[in-house]
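Help: read this over?
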Amino acid sequence: MRSPTRPGTGLDVALFVTCLVDMFRPSVGFAAAKLLEDAGCRVVVPDAQTCCGQPGYNSGDRADAIAIARQVIEAFEGYDYVVVPSGSCGGMISHHYPALFADEPAMKARAEKLASRTHELTGFLVDVLGVAPTPTRCDATVTYHDSCSGLRELGVKAQPRQLLAGVEGVKLVEMTGAEICCGFGGTFCVKYPDISNAMLDDKVADIAATGAGTLLAGDLGCLLNMAGKLQREGRPVKVRHVAEVIAGMTDEPAIGEPAP
């Protein structure tokens, strides 16, 4: 994904797109950029960005995690804020980067400065900017999954719901166990596939019980995980990132659906 070309005004915000968005769902990045620009921010997508380093970090590969974190810090310094349409990547940068440089005081200070300016997208719009997005419409009954890192590390719970309340036509039906893990957990689903699949079974049952036709969340990894299971079971539930709905960008096929 390349930087949006329309200049913004006000704050300089660097958009950390995330690997999964860049590779599988660029529309999420464009929706995030639209929401930030509509709020008056000048959005930049640094070309040097890559992964946040979380897969290596979670797997115990500290050396590569540190190398990647160093590169991210260098790429994203100099902006007023860094905004991420993912609680897990946002949590990695804001909660775990400083500890990676415990033995390098200068780098730790830089990591702490970046961490203090890094926010998940919906949290940034509500808690930092305090803005209501441009009114949009989406005629759908939806349910919302609270992704683990966004909820537990960043306190993202009410913010996406507050933004969804401003979308005309959306009816939110809360699911049982909305705060329970979907079983993805990054490398968890690879290391413990049987446990992961059992957790996903429970999550899909909770989604289906709502009767909602659309599932929303703020982390693409969780969404891909749940979309795959829903499709394998033949359940007619559309899956989207919450930013796409809030931004009014729902013309794209839902996650996992074939392009027309």
About this structure: The beta strands are 12-15, 42-44, 81-84, 118-120, 137-144, 168-172, 214-217, 238-241. Residues 12-126 form one domain.
